[in-house]
Amino acid sequence: MKRLIGILGASYCGSTVFGYTLGALPECTFMGETYWITQTDLNCTSCTIKKQPCSIITEDLRTQLKNNEGNYFKILADKCETDNIISTDKSVALYKDKIKNIDTVWIILFKSPWAQVTSHINHTSTKYSTEQYLNVLNNHYTNCVSFAGNALFIDFDFFSTNREQCLEYICNRLNLKYTADAIRYWNFTHHSVSGNTGAYTNVKDKINAANNVQDINEKIDWYKAVYRKTSVNDSRWKFQLSSEDWIKIGKHQYFAMYHDMLSKFSNNFMEWAGNNAT
Ligand SMILES: [Zn+2]
């Protein structure tokens, strides 16, 4: 049976870059935030950029999905002729009534509360207080954890700085064929829909603009430019939070939740790393 690899997490947790990377693995297809396909008339990101019609995200597909929501992810997997369909819909509500006739495996993607709060402040016009945003994060992840049950926890900060190691670990846990090439996801064809087009277009545009791709790849560490941009290791965010907010985050209930997710990730990872070493 085909399988949905459903990514759960909060907005700005790094899911687009993460999804593209998984989607570049063999027998995997990344479709982005799939709910956009039926809830908006957005078209495929890469085909729109190339000004060509998309062979996957078509009006016929939208109609099929709208008429058969229960089989939503089964229909997507069939359309892409893939074994593993990857979605970054992230919310329980966007998955739960759409997973008939398909196996499911859940990845809970998270990053540090400080980086998450800063990303939120930088990206959205919603005027949440730090406290309100922490409450939203706490409720959201509590919901994800209880829905997913036996999920794979992935720390995006770790992923973005230990890409090959972490991707190999994920492949091992999910019985996927590992290829290190997937890290350069922008070299692969994707048909996905996303509100966040930058993760694909920023890199593609820069490479296309260069006269000599070989040359520019040597000049710039694209891995760092792409993966670390959204990571806690890009330290610019540290100067954006006030010391009051910094302390508030550390004391919030969500911090305990984050710590719990981090320990699950670390335990899993250490266990796997230990087995692999022997
Ligand atoms: Zn397309």
Q: What does this protein look like?
A:
Helix content is 52%, strand content 10%. The chain is of the alpha/beta class. The protein has a five-stranded parallel sheet with strand order 2-3-1-4-5, sandwiched between helices. Helix 4 packs antiparallel against helix 5 (72-80). It is globular and about 50 Å long. Zinc ion binds next to helix 3.
Listing every helix as H and every strand as E from the N terminus to the C terminus, the arrangement reads EHEHHHHEEHHEHHHHHHH
CATH topology: Rossmann fold
Task: Just give the CATH class.
Answer: Alpha Beta
Low-confidence stretches: none
Strand order within the widest beta sheet? 2-3-1-4-5
Oligomer: single chain
Structural class of the secondary structure composition? alpha/beta
CATH superfamily: P-loop containing nucleotide triphosphate hydrolases
Strand content: 5-15%
Q: Tally of extended strands?
A: 5
CATH architecture: 3-Layer(aba) Sandwich
In this entry the ligands are: zinc ion
User: How can the largest sheet be summarized?
Assistant: 5 strands, parallel
Our measurement of the CA-to-CA distance between the termini, rounded to an integer number of angstroms, reads: 33 Å
* Overall tally of structural domains: 1
Short summary:
By secondary structure, this protein is of the alpha/beta class. It has helices at residues 15-23, 35-39, 45-49, 59-67, 72-80, 113-123, 130-148, 156-161, 163-174, 198-209, 213-219, 222-227, 243-251, 253-277, and strands at 3-9, 28-30, 84-90, 103-110, 152-155.
